[in-house]
Amino acid sequence: MKAVAFDYQRAEDVGQAIRLLGEAEGEGRLLAGGQSLGPMLNLRLVRPGLLIDIRRLEALRGVEEGAESLRYGAAVTHAELEDGRVPDAAGGLLRHVAGGIAYRAVRNRGTLGGSLAHADPAADWLSTLVALDARLHLQGPQGARSLPLAEAVLGAFATAIEEREVLTAVEVPKLGAAARWGFHKINRKTGEFADAIGVVVVDPERGVCRVVAGAVEGPPVLLGGLAETLAAEGAEAGLAAVEPAVAAALPQLDAVERHLHAVALRRAIAQVYAP
Amino acid sequence: MSGGEGVSGSGIGARVRRKEDRRHLHGRGRFVADMSMPGLREVAFLRAPVAHAKLRGVRKPEGAEGSVFLIEDLKGLAPIVAKSSLKGYKLSEFPALAHGKIRYVGEAIAACVAPTRAQAEDLAERVELDLEELPAIVDSLAARKPGSPLVHEEWGDNLFLETFVDGDIEKIAAEAAVKVEREYRTARQCMHPMEGKGLLAWWDDRTDQLVVHTSTQVPHVIRTGLSECLGLEQRRVRVAPPDVGGGFGYKCVLQPEELVVAWLAMTYRRPFRWVEDRREHLTAGANSREHHYKVTAYADARGRLLALDAEVTVDVGAYSVWPFTACLEAAQAGGNLPGPYAFDHYRCKTYSVATNKPPFTPYRGVARPGVCFAIELTIDAIARAVGREPAEVREENLVQGAAMPFTNVTGKHYDSGDYPESLRRAKRLIDLEGVRARQRQGEADGRLVGVGFSTFTEQSAHGTKVFAAWGIPMVPGFEQATVRLTPEGGVEVRAGIHTIGQGLETTLAQVASHQLSIPVEKIGVVLGDTAETPYSTGAYASRGMVMAGGAVSRAAEGLAGRIKAIAAHLLQCEPAAVELRDGRIHAGNASLDFADVGRAWYLRPEQLPDDVHSGGLEVTDGFKPKVDTGAFTYATHAAVVAVDPETGKVEILDYVIVEDCGTMVNPMIVEGQAFGGTAQGIGTALFEETPYDAGGQPLASTLADYLLPGPTELPNMRIEHMETPSPYTAHGIKGVGEGGAIAPPGAIVNAINDALQPLGVEMGEIPVSPRRLLGKLLAARAGGEAAA
Fold first, then answer.
1. A260, B277: Cβ pair inside 8 Å?
2. pLDDT reported for residue B9
3. Residue B490, C-beta contacts closer than 8 angstroms, at least 6 positions apart
4. ipTM surpassing 0.90, yes or no?
5. Partner A, chain B 756-775, Cβ-Cβ below 8 Å
6. Domain A59-173 falls in which CATH fold?
């Protein structure tokens, strides 16, 4: 299949991208790495009147270091994280996750911001960055705003990003020196989307313990109760609490799916507490 | 690895690098999609959105009526009807575009024509359909039952064909010590050549011919099919396939799209093209493999197979493909289920069932990946029932080397080889005892390790006798080739078979080189174009090397005789004293260059003897094996797997192949065929599947849903060769193209079941996806807990 006819414009800066989105009156679509948008265009699942290319905008490319967090430009690629060309706020977790996304050809072009704005429930960044409690920075006609990623994701392929807003940066809190993380993805084969993702972040200095079940039908699920058990009682109690926590949080899934999510979580927990 | 070492030159047996790879590796191949032509129009098809419906009406887009074609616009175009002489076989009329009724999702309804493909797709979106939906028939077992909705109402049922081989098994059944009953299923699959189907057709006013550049394995056969459906004399149809990016069987049938594009070119006398995209390929074409088996095996207390009682159901989809028909798969399944095993009592019923799915096309191995899976799992089940090592029970049941040639229970004539030896070598290579020791120790990561074997025979290059018995529209006879010496001492080989990636440009040159002693660098090979090559039924059924190789061998041998006669005159000796060796022509101490003979015939005829053969230095000859019921290739594959009982994932830890395809023309290419086929077989065993929902909608419409194994899913395969020449073919060559794809599901699932034995779980449905495996494991666990 071939895409329907559309216009293409490369934005000079974020302001112009926002203006072009406005002028397109709902027919505009931002193009960053194009690794999901490209196939969707060819399958005619999206039919924009105008593609606004923001891939090369300098403002979206860099990383800013703050006291408590790192702010990643939305057009930073998976490959830049995988290769360590940008710093890792999460003690190696971002680099680990980046290296397992799809295939290298996808990672060369695909961007952090594009992945989050697309909000495919099975995507790696969505679960990982919810577990890290990342914030999205958005710019629109009315100025800039930011909100936690966990609140920005409304459902499968649905976010709180407005029609005329550009996702400019992703802010990730820095993990403490003693922090540990676990990430386990279950998928059919190398490069495929996940059937289940378990992410666990334990950061005693900051008093943070977050557990996420990802690649569910909707947004990643934060398992607060399980995280509390884990923080308060440790690995063994946490492992035992996984199955009931999954059953309670994901009643819509069938037995095999719940089983896979439980396995992913147990393996992520085991990774955190591995000697 | 063995074979090929010590063979000098570039003749039979040498590991010659493939001549065709230069252009492909440099991106200079030329495929249908690479072609361009002034005034070319692209065709897009509007395809059926539902599986089963009455097509009450179609409204063309306003203002574009002349660019959209429906079945009633295609005046004079006959439907595809694949006849067979098998008793009780029912015919289907497969129209080039849907005619009154829709029988599967993806069936072409309208052909839309525009300067670009995107514009043609825009047009297709504007066509409106008036449909009356009918209940879809999706499951082949349900479709067999009386009262099922009907794909073809006029039939009264959904059965293309039923066959029954009756065997006297009752007495054995009553007395046998062991009875094993199993049900097996193999998923509907879609074969994946790198290049999909496609064609460009135009009218050549100079030759007054329709020229069809189609991506096909069987150009001369497609010429016949096009001619018959278009009502155009064959001399006015030229099929000239460009590079073909793989076929695997999909490209050996006449496609409705081929008819539409050819009709447009014939009618409007301008070029038209259609290039299948992957979504069309996945949903509307290239369907294969879906079988269901009920097997009951009877054995003695040692596991010796005494009788087999089977019922095979093949889901052949909505229409019969031409020329191989909807019955070939089940006929092959019923005939090949006994496999390489020696036993005397066999009963088998087969059903070829019509459903609302795309037509079933032959795929590498035709039926045998399914039957091999069924019989190999049954052998292991027997071994478990009698408490013995499956490899030993398998070995005792195989046709023994001393029994060759052997005619089996279904009348298959196994020409040569030593099947148990291939199994013994595979056992050593995979280190069966080492794996058993490892299993006793257990794995630190909690995974379960298992080992499995699979031995098969593959009837390759079966010919006239076999196809005539099926009475299908194409019966292969003598395969022909032309071999010509050029003035400068080079060679041109012309054969009507086509190259689809299997290396024929190299291997046919090697056969000619073997006969003439001229190196392959000086041998050009022209294939496929019906205007330039003698007739061939094409590349299918692992027949290329046996048949075209045999034809080139014969023609080159004839040419050698002509060369010797002229050389003898030039050297003033007897032709019997002339010898072709090391790229030159020798007689005693004297020698000539091939160019001397070439020059004499073409440029200096005054030097020729008076009685020179008037056919000159060009010979066309044909070949067919002495016994043409097939040269039987065989192999044993063995796999070691690790099953993760928590995730249901299977990793192949080790994989070995011990194969015997008779004389190897090029061992490197034999190995490539075995590895590539095995990769596809691994896909069949673990990944590939086109599921349908209850309404007949295909659920795998992109490669994100249809999983093909990639490099990280494939093991490092190890291969050993045995080389038992066939007594019936030229040079003892047997076919090798399909074999690799046949054995892997049997070996891998036997290994999985070996691993799962401690848990009391057995898999019988492929692909063994994590979902299927976990479903069984969770059920077993729940059952165990309930029992406790």
1. no
2. 85
3. B518, B522, B523, B524, B594
4. yes
5. 769-771, 774-775
6. 3.30.465
